[in-house]
Amino acid sequence: MIKIVGAVVLGVLSANVYGVACETNPNKMGAHYMLEKKLHKQAGSEALTSTSRLALWRRGKEVAHELEDQQVTEVWNLLPNGRVRPVRYFDEYRRGIEYQPNEVEGSTDEKIWAKKTRLITKISKNTMKLLRSQGDGCDKLDYYSAQRKGVHYLLTWSPSKELPVRYKEVTQHYSFTATLTLYEPDESKVDSFFTDRDSYQTTDYADIGDNESDPFLLKMINLGFVSHGASGFYNANGDALESASPHHRH
Amino acid sequence: MDKRICMLSGAIALAVSVSSSAGVLPESQVANAWFTQAESQLTEKLARTQTTTAKNVIVFVGDGMGVSTLTASRILQGQLEGESGEEGYLSFEQFPYTALAKTYNVDAQTPDSAGTMTAMMSGVKTDVGVIGVDEDIVRGDCSTVEGNEVITALELAELNGLSTGVISTARITHATPAATYAKSADRNWEDISDIEGDDGKANCDLNNLPEDIASQLVNFEANLERRIPGADVNGIEVIMGGGRRHFLPKDSDFNSADAVSATEGDRTDGRHLINEWGATYSDGVYVMDQAGFDAIDVDSTEHVFGLFNESHMQYEADRENDIAGEPSLSEMTAKAIQVLDNNDKGFFLMVESGRIDHGHHAGSAYNALTDTIEFSTAVQAAIDGTDPAETLIIVTADHGHVFTIAGYPKRGNPILGKVVGVGAEEPSMDAEGFPYTTLGYMNGRGFADLGGETNADVRYGLAVDAGRKDLTAVDTETSGFHQESLVPRSSETHSGEDVAIHAKGPSAHLVQGVVEQNVVFHLINNALALISE
After folding, report:
1. Model confidence, pTM
2. CB-based contact A29:A118 (threshold 8 Å)
3. What contacts B284, CB < 8 A, 6 or more positions away?
4. Are B276 and B257 in contact (CB under 8 A)?
């Protein structure tokens, strides 16, 4: 935990020291998060902490969630008609599945693009109370809070990056924390990220039924699609937040 | 036997039959509508005459359109028109001649589209997954293609001076349309990147990979002239379908207006095949949307290249959601005929409804049946647009699906609904007290209730959920309902049963009995006398 906080501090400090945050393009960037979910000790069960990593990548009308622990990347393209087209890449195998627009639950929702790009929707943020703001210009951070139905929400928001720097929700039974650990403004690295995925061998989902002689494809199908953000937190109240991770610590 | 004598004797036989029954059968039976309608059908059959030589041949292929799909589609079609449904016909079910085709591939009991369509186009059954090559091929083995290529009906039509066309709602490089023009050791080698990325390929010269299917389509004329010494053909006149990705460089600068990927093209060799086609056919017209399609001058246009989607075209029920707009299968069929019939020598046209198969794979009877109904409309467009005396129309499928019509629903029961028995108003219950649907699948992803969704492929985004569900509160007649399946699988599968062949026009009378699927080629050849020249 100390390392995470340190990284966040470093991230914020680097922006302060070099003053370059505003020179970056919030529509073309990368942001690495550490996600932590703690299940509090209950009668009959021990406390459980799980962590996972999420990288958010934006490039114009493309947004990606890189689920680093699962070696899976999900990319969404915003189409001219407002629909969102998802592709799921299996990074370990350099293979991908292409969905048509609307082929993943939720993608018909126009808000899905906002959720994927900002992690916390503007609507959700606006339902929270602005406690205070700190810093100026590019370094400005807004601190929000909300309390609803037994859940306490805390959000630190960077208006210039259009990103949460820290998001936390706490209940009697668990807490979920997402912390920005590294901000990547280098556009060449963003291009490299998307170009690399684009080079994977991909299959249109409609063709799966005619290609089950491909054992790897069969395996991917049975995995299903990661919908509703297995670790892509994009809600302050309403949509499910999960923080699945194979890395459990007791 | 003299044709007139044959007809006369038939008429006498019918007259005798009616005369003798008139005294035995009660008036209520003879006057019964079922009785008289069936009698009329027989009279029509007795009055038939046959001819052999056709000027044009159109082959319609409903991909995955098994017999149960025909039955369910005709019922749905009727019910959408306010009828009970069972009594109606799809357009081609009123054709005078019908046969059953055995669909197995050389190496498979249950076939795929590549092997079956190769059989229909060449007269030679072959293996699963290969295009335009015989059974001596080894799938994925580059070295086994040469010497095992077959000549297709479309190629023969070209060599005979006929105009030719290929239409599909799938990618135009997909197995069924590809089998009319390409030779490939693997159906998935639709563009060069597919070959490069295929870890299963064998004996391939990495510096000289075999020509991918998209390239073969654009180079069709040159390739055919190279293979056949002395040949001089003018290329496929009408090409319409989806699959733009396989014709464009992997460079977003070449994206079309309605691209759904950040980079639409897949080609890693930098080739822009649409431009290459345009250079070869300087008088040709390339179209990519409804507006371009509508603007085609059918009287003056000699070559048409229509690629209406990055991948497959839309399901008919979902077509209005296409970004740029795309024509229906019936619109493409009508337009193609108007272009092709400018050739006095005649034409050969293959029309595939490619997404019936995809609807079934996704476990959506709604999408499969509504695409079948549009397929029927496309056949009607062909009937309306051609002279029946000179055009053989063959309608068939490449294979079926594990799609069933079950239970004991009463007459007129909604075909997409739950089984309601004869005399009942409430759904029948299974042994555990739950209602069940008439339509179902033997295997596949199983139940999903997606409400008003019109794209079957949404189902793939949800987990496999096979087995019985409580459908009490579910509206199974909505477009987004996915039928239950017994065996859980990542997708529903093809079936190994026979498929129907329906035919009308010259040589159609040869369509009868149970035949091997590769007989279709010989029907085409017999009508057009392709090999004799």
Report:
1. 0.87
2. no
3. B277, B278, B301, B302, B303, B304, B305
4. no
Q: What are the b/e assignments for B277-303, b being 16+ CB within 10 Å?
A: bbeebeebbbbbbbebbeebeeeebbb
The mean pLDDT value for B242-270 works out to 94
Give the list of residues 6+ apart from residue B386 with CB closer than 8 angstroms, or none.
B56, B58, B337, B341, B393
Could you give the C-alpha distances from B444 to B62, B130, B146, in angstroms and in order? 20, 24, 37
* Domain span holding position A47: 2-245
Least reliable range by pLDDT among A66-70, A191-195, B77-81, B240-244: A66-70
Q: Is the ipTM of this complex over 0.90?
A: no
**Closest residue in chain B to residue A216, using alpha carbons only:** B199
CB atoms within 10 A of CB A158: 24
Is A250 within the bounds of a domain?
no
- For A209, the closest of B311, B462, B491 (CB atoms) is B491
Q: How far apart are CA B195 and CA B190, in angstroms?
A: 8
The ranges assigned to domains in chain B are: 56-402+499-528, 416-492
Structure tokens at A120: 């916390």
Please indicate, yes or no, if residue A225 is contained in any of the structural domains.
yes
User: Mind listing the pLDDT tens digit for each residue in B22-79?
Assistant: 589 999 999 999 999 999 999 999 999 999 999 999 999 999 999 999 999 999 999 9
* Contact yes or no for B61/B398 (Cβ under 8 A): yes
Instruction: Indicate yes or no: CB of A194 within 8 angstroms of CB of B262.
Output: yes
Residues of chain B neighbouring A101 (CB-CB closer than 8 A):
260, 321
Q: Which of A99, A93, A106 is nearest to A219 (CA)?
A: A93
- Tokens encoding A76: 């969404």
Other Cβ atoms closer than 10 A to B463: 13
Contact B209, B193 (CB under 8 A): no
In this structure, is residue A115 part of a structural domain? Answer: yes
In this complex, do B175 and A210 lie within 8 Å of one another by their Cβ atoms?
Answer: yes
Domain total in chain A: 1
Q: Mark yes or no for CB contact A206/B361 under 8 Å.
A: yes
CB-based contact B315:B448 (threshold 8 Å)? no
From the options 3.90.850.10, 3.30.1130.10, 3.40.720.10, 1.20.1050.10, give the CATH code of B56-402+499-528: 3.40.720.10
